[in-house]
Write a structure and sequence with these properties.
The complex is a heterodimer of chains A (447) and B (575). Chain A has 447 residues and is α/β, with parallel strands linked by helices. The N terminus of chain A is likely disordered. Chain B has 26 helices and eleven strands. The longest helix of chain B has 21 residues.
Chain lengths: 447, 575
């Protein structure tokens, strides 16, 4: 699995095979160039939640460095040091149908063309980064969604429910993976588990390393230096392998009560209920997060997104004791700020779990979270008015030198500038993204 | 590299006004460059003396005969012997030998996929590739109970797994390390076996773990030479152990690890010159030795021409022409005249029907290569064969400069600098559509500064003007009669010649050319370029080569028994 991402073309043949071209040991690779102060992020994660926020329960208080988390943000307190609250972003590019345009703009920075029913006119940030960060990996990116395609989307691809758009002309909408079981099987269902293979390799390389040490002692200084260089590269390889040993396969919990395709049966108003599936949302969401983290940890992919439903979110929240759907609490049934606050707080609790998992997974440069940029956002700010100013966004992680544990007030900066900066953090140097008329340049103050 | 670069700069300064030359796309010093001077100091790591002098120019400090007689009194004075890794070819052969019969080749990287795993775009490091190779071989062998049993000589069903794992380890390490493993090393591997068995759950997993570790061990990948402390010794030199000599000899003569017979001799301790000679002669009768000799020449000369299909030189002809030359050198060395002279002048070669067409030979049918006598006024020796002639041509015109470079650098070991960087290629037409390349190149290199390099370079290159871009014979170029005549200076082979046939006949008798040839083979034997400290050994070999009338097998034998092949410096060892 991951540690063997090279083509393993070795074939031992009975006769008449092709002679090998094995590496010239004389031609050892040169020293690596020194890294710049803050290496670019190696991974990108995007999380979408529906419904905006309840701003007065969301905005922190205090100062940039010394701030107090609001009720909605409170679940993030265990990972507060890894979070940058990005306040005051104005999603000017979200032009079009009041919900759809917000989702389209969220990662593409483009307007909805000829609303409704049409998409935007550019790729999404995650897909642009997939081309850069996931080179040579099994998957360019991993898109997942929980309880998706509700209401008017009817379980189909529509501007109501698409977050990611391909990084090539046409910018095709990318339907997320809905079925956690098939995702698990594709990503982790191989016969040989990565951890077993990694343990094996580690034990082999340990023994090889011991041979180098034993032999180096018997040689003269020049020869010893040569062998020690070789041994150092063996140790490097061992560390890579050890990293692979840190990717236990996530536990596949029983989700037989969850119907990933239930959206296909949905009615426009959310009156068609699937309480079993709704009740399974928490465990399915957790499984998807676990799979996302392990896919990143095991270098299956470097880019992942998760959607907690679509912009309609016409499903109930039985585990919160809420028997209406989110859109009902947003405006269909009149604005219900208390219920909305409960739901948004729950989303942030799940996000805290994701960040904790990333922070607990060791990687070469420290933890997975240290090497990642995590964006957390929604398609509008105010559930009742659909306003898209003062967007309640979060960044997290240490990738690209992002400075966290802060509350950054951007005072109405353009959303496109934030997208440019997210690309820059991941090593993409471009100075514009999405609709250029909304770009002024990278968002200052992130690093 | 420093000294060579310095010499290069000096000469470049001398030739600063050098006129237009062929575009030599390969840089000197590039190991992939067939025109590379054979003796760059970069290939002599640890060579404190670092002679780095590639040019002999026929003016050695003392004649070889004189040297040889003086030297025998002085005792062994080996040159530096840094730690050497196996080459790809040797690694391949070693894996095959390790696995035993039933596995002929290991296809690791598809040659076509990426011929250079160390290019800047290479996805991986050598260690990772070796790791993967070891993994693949381990899986293959451990899945083949019969092959495992053949190595260990032990059947787990009757003798028990514990006994068989021990005998497997002992036998495998003898092959992999090319010497018996110490008790401690065997215990180390028993722990590896046990851990493999624990992780994988069976005996085969133990086998697999041992194979994987052994194949990545320095003992397998490097030629470890610490000498035999109980063996012959002088103040500065220590005899190699029998096993170390065996490995040196086997890789030099066969490109492969020692066979069972040689290992048995090695077990008796340091080898005398006489023993080494006996073993060298025995190994030179093996098929491995024939293949190794082919590999040497295929690497020494540029013999891989680009296909040129509109001239009939298809990829298949390109492949066949290399095979022709390989078959030729094998035949000359082992079955035919056996001499350096024949290598450069033998007017017969190995052809099948498609190849024969290029030589204007009729009456050859079939795919199988057969020995064919050619017109001795048109062809003689390796450098008049298609492979070389095509490899030193471009698509529209031949490259006299490149052809001349090979003769001066590779055959005479002269240090010809690269052209100044600002020299454009020769003007294709120069407004005179009927001007031959000889006329154009001569005109464009007529300045005195250019002539510093081009006097000999052009003359030698033009000697091959009877061969076109795909090596066919031609009497005219651009409707003018070919003039292949010229004159060579600055070597004992100096003098006038009519064409390549005469030039080669002259070089075949040249002491400079023979000394240069010895130097190439000595580099193979010592695994580094010979330097000043090897002067005595070199002189002995040069004399033996001369005494045998330039016999190619005798040259390899002579190289196998010099003191510099049998001893190593004490100063390089751990105290």
């Amino acid at each position: 699995m991951p540690q063997f991402r090279l083509n393993r073309r070795a074939v031992l043949r009975g006769a008449g095979g092709v002679a090998i071209a094995l590496p010239w040991l004389e031609a050892m690779t040169p020293e690596r160039p020194a890294l710049a102060a803050a290496p670019p992020a190696k991974r990108f994660v995007g999380v979408y939640t529906p419904g905006g926020t309840v701003f007065e329960n969301w905005q922190p208080t205090g100062t940039e460095a010394a701030f107090t988390l609001s009720p909605i943000l409170e679940p993030l307190s265990p990972v507060k040091e890894h979070v940058l609250v990005v306040d005051g972003i104005n999603m000017k590019c979200a032009v079009g149908e009041q919900n759809q345009a917000g989702l389209i703009a969220l990662l593409t920075g483009t307007e909805q063309t000829g609303s409704p029913a049409n998409f935007g006119s550019g790729p999404s940030v995650d897909q642009v980064l997939a081309s850069r960060l996931s080179q040579g990996l099994k998957l360019p990116s991993l898109e997942q969604a929980v309880r998706w395609g509700t209401g008017k989307a009817h379980g189909l691809v529509s501007p109501i429910d698409i977050l990611s758009f391909a990084d090539k002309p046409g910018f095709a909408p990318i339907k997320p993976r809905l079925d956690p079981v098939s995702t698990w099987q594709e990503l982790f269902g191989g016969v040989e588990t990565p951890s077993a293979q990694a343990q094996w390799d580690k034990s082999i390389l340990d023994a090889v390393g011991a041979r180098y040490s034993a032999l180096a002692k018997r040689l003269g200084a020049a020869d010893r230096a040569r062998l020690e260089q070789h041994a150092a590269r063996i140790r490097e390889l061992e560390q890579t392998v050890a990293k692979a040993a840190m990717c236990p396969v996530p536990k596949l919990v029983d989700t037989s009560d969850y119907d990933p395709d239930t959206g296909l049966n949905s009615g426009d108003t959310g009156e068609v209920l699937d309480l079993a599936t709704d009740g399974a949302i928490p465990k399915v969401g957790k499984l998807m997060i676990d799979m996302m983290v392990m896919a990143l940890a095991c270098d299956i992919t470097a880019v992942a997104t998760l959607m907690w439903s679509d912009t309609e979110a016409k499903h109930t929240f039985p585990w919160l004791g809420l028997n209406q759907h989110l859109h009902y609490y947003m405006n269909d049934g009149g604005y219900h700020p208390v219920e909305c606050t409960t739901i948004f707080t729950w989303y942030h609790t799940q996000h805290a779990y994701l960040l904790q998992q990333l922070a607990q997974t060791p990687s070469q440069g420290g933890t997975l979270l240290d090497e990642t940029v995590v964006f957390f956002g929604t398609h509008l700010q105010n559930p009742a008015t659909h306003a898209k100013t003062n967007m309640p966004f979060l960044l997290a992680g240490g990738g690209g030198g992002l400075r966290t544990n802060r509350w950054l007030q951007t005072d109405g900066a353009s959303h496109n500038d934030l997208l440019v900066s997210m690309l820059n953090l991941c090593g993409d140097p471009r100075g514009t993204f999405g609709d250029p008329s909304y770009v002024t340049g990278p968002l200052p103050g992130l690093t | 590299m420093r000294q060579w670069a310095h010499a290069c700069a000096l000469l470049a300064a001398l030739t600063a006004g050098c006129g237009k030359t062929d575009d030599l796309s390969l840089a000197p010093g590039d190991p992939a460059n067939p025109l590379n001077p054979i003796n760059p100091p970069s290939s002599t790591p640890g060579n404190g003396g670092g002679s780095g002098s590639g040019a002999t120019g026929g003016t050695g400090p003392a004649g070889p005969d004189e040297m040889a007689s003086q030297c025998s009194a002085l005792g062994p004075a080996p040159g530096p012997s840094p730690l050497f890794a196996l080459s790809n070819y040797e690694l391949n052969r070693s894996v095959v030998a390790l696995l035993g019969s039933g596995v002929e080749h290991v296809a690791w990287l598809d040659e076509a996929a990426d011929p250079n795993p160390f290019s800047s775009s290479a996805p991986t490091t050598p260690e990772r590739q070796l790791h993967e190779m070891a993994h693949a071989v381990g899986q293959e062998l451990s899945g083949n109970a019969q092959a495992v049993q053949a190595i260990s000589g032990c059947d787990p069903l009757t003798s028990g797994e514990a006994a068989c794992s021990a005998s497997f380890i002992e036998a495998l390490l003898l092959r992999a390390y090319r010497r018996p493993a110490t008790r401690e090393e065997q215990d180390e591997m028993k722990a590896v076996f046990a851990e493999g068995e624990r992780l994988g759950g069976d005996f085969a997993s133990g086998v697999r773990a041992v194979v994987e570790v052994a194949l990545q061990s320095p003992d397998f990948l490097y030629l470890i030479e610490t000498g035999d402390r109980e063996g012959e010794s002088t103040k500065d030199a220590l005899a190699l152990s029998g096993y170390e000599s065996a490995a040196r000899l086997a890789f030099f003569v066969t490109g492969s690890p020692p066979d069972a017979a040689l290992s048995a001799v090695a077990a008796q301790g340091p080898m005398s010159a006489q023993t080494l000679e006996e073993q060298a002669r025995r190994l030179l009768g093996s098929p491995e030795s024939r293949e190794r000799v082919r590999q040497f020449y295929l690497a020494l000369f540029p013999l891989s021409g680009e296909p040129l299909s509109d001239q009939g030189f298809t990829p298949e002809i390109a492949r066949l022409s290399r095979e022709e030359t390989g078959r030729f050198v094998e035949d000359v060395t082992f079955d035919g005249a056996g001499t350096f002279r024949a290598l450069l002048t033998e007017p017969s070669t190995w052809l099948n029907e498609p190849l024969a067409e290029f030589y204007g030979v009729t009456g050859i049918s079939g795919e199988k290569l057969q020995k064919v006598a050619l017109d001795p006024t048109e062809r003689g020796g390796l450098l008049t064969q298609l492979s070389f002639l095509r490899a030193t041509s471009r698509s529209l015109e031949v490259s006299p400069v490149q052809r001349g470079m090979v003769v001066l650098r590779t055959l005479l070991c002269q240090n010809v600098p690269a052209p100044p960087l600002d020299v454009p290629p020769v003007t294709p037409d120069d407004g005179k559509p009927n001007a031959t390349l000889r006329e154009r190149l001569t005109a464009e290199t007529k300045d005195a500064a250019c002539q510093e390099c081009h006097e000999d370079l052009n003359a030698v290159g033009f000697a091959f003007d009877h061969y076109d871009v795909v090596g066919r014979w031609r009497d005219t170029e651009r409707d003018q009669a070919v003039d292949a005549s010229g004159e060579l200076h600055r070597t004992d082979a100096r003098g006038k010649f009519q064409d390549a046939i005469e030039l080669m006949a002259r070089l075949a008798e040249s002491k400079d050319a023979k000394a240069c040839f010895v130097q190439h083979w000595q580099t193979e034997a010592l695994r580094r370029a010979p330097g000043a400290s090897d002067a005595c050994a070199t002189a002995q070999v040069v004399r033996a080569f001369a005494d045998s009338d330039g016999n190619l097998v005798e040259l390899m034998v002579a190289l196998s028994k010099t003191d510099n092949f049998r001893y190593r410096l004490k100063s390089e060892l751990s105290p």
